[in-house]
Amino acid sequence: MHLGSIGRSWLAAIVVLGASFSLSAHAAGDAQLGQKKFYTCYGCHGIENYRNAYPDYRVPMLRHQHAAYIIAALQEYKAGDRPHPTMHAQASSLSDQDMQDIAAYLQGPEPVKPSTGVVGQIPPQAQVCAACHGANGLGVAVPLTPKPPVLAGQHEDYLVQALEAYRNGRRKNPIMMGMAQSLASDADVKIVAAYFASQRSPLATATIDSK
Ligand code: HEC
Ligand code: HEC
User: Fold this and answer.
1) pLDDT band at 24, cuts 50/70/90?
2) In angstroms, what is the span from residue 179 Cα to ligand 2's centroid?
3) 84 alpha carbon, closest ligand
């Protein structure tokens, strides 16, 4: 009788495990399909240091960025919560499944792991950011929803552009609008952007043969 109930609980555990495996496999998207679906995106995101015109700044690096964040960002461009017209058009052409597949391809099988090493010294303006982005922009060990992006090694001029857009409310993200407004001046924005851009990073341009 005893054995029987242990047997049943094991069975229940296996069934639950099986269900969560198939769910996460689905949520992860199909990286091979994602690479194919990324073909229009290579025109900008696949070229090292490719620049946006008016205003002039480098397009963000996407290789190894967190999948959950890529999906959230694409949904925000699609919904108009981020102001970029080309990215609005690009994201609007994607289904939820396309976004998941592209995000799986960009992130790769292993998400970037948080670590403690810091290049230089964290400026006082960036202390508050460490709670979610980590002291070095590689994130924190506790799981956070929504998933904060990797900032480490991202282009400095893109980070400035993103922070200014949160700060003046053109990017409508409730968490980051408040955080960016805690940066008192353009000089503070520049300091935190330069700091996170200078950190060691796995972020890279998603060229066709990037790993
Ligand atoms: C014409 C150039 C161009 C093309 C084509 C393009 N992008 Fe972008 N993308 C940009 C620029 C510029 C930004 C930054 C916009 C901003 O300031 O918010 C961006 C931002 C993004 C971001 C946000 C990254 C972050 O760190 O927040 C994602 C994700 C993204 N693009 C994915 C894609 C995907 C997927 C495609 C193809 C379906 C694509 N892009 C096609 C120029 C482009
Ligand atoms: C409470 C958690 C939290 C804190 C604290 C926080 N962030 Fe964020 N950050 C996020 C989340 C979540 C996002 C994604 C927002 C979105 O979807 O647009 C984000 C996005 C960003 C982006 C956009 C990156 C990209 O690729 O477009 C930048 C830049 C950024 N944060 C910088 C900062 C800085 C600088 C600070 C400190 C002044 C800070 N963050 C504090 C959670 C946080």
Assistant:
1) very low
2) 7
3) 1
